[in-house]
Amino acid sequence: MTTAADIMHPGAHWIPADETLDRAAQLMREHGVGALPVSDPMDPDERMVGLITDRDIVVMCVASGHEPSHVTAGELCRGTPHWIASRASVQDVLREMEGNQIRRLPVIDENRRFVGMISEADLAQFLSDDQLAHFVERVYSS
């Protein structure tokens, strides 16, 4: 059985909730990623409190007239963060992403530590054309 750990992009990076969005954008550029999980810097287990994307920074901060150096990652996070266990099946991954209409899904290990990220590009390497078309239809439908 192919698992989330098999298809994820390993070695993704966190950003603390109290870090600014300009730093988040710099980290995204440095690591060539479009999303970062946000951690609670006061939590010794660094639990995830949300996820921010490059699009979030542009639409919810810059386009709204805010200065990225004055807004924190934690301020931009909204809703309950979604994640999947590294041992979950690809079908579980698809259910989570399709059911919540999300394009990126953090992966955690058995110790609840962040170990990677699954994106559409990662799925495209493992799904048939029909499965991928179904995924895109479900995630992008209103």
UniProtKB/TrEMBL annotation:
InterPro entries on file: CBS_dom, CBS_dom_sf, Diverse_CBS-Domain
Protein's UniProt keywords contain Transmembrane: no
Keywords of the record: CBS domain
PROSITE patterns: CBS (PS51371)
Gene3D superfamilies noted in UniProt: CBS-domain
Keyword Ribonucleoprotein assigned: no
Domain CBS: 8-69, 76-134
Name of the protein: CBS domain-containing protein
Organism in which the protein naturally occurs: Nocardiopsis suaedae
Higher taxonomy: Bacteria, Bacillati, Actinomycetota, Actinomycetes, Streptosporangiales
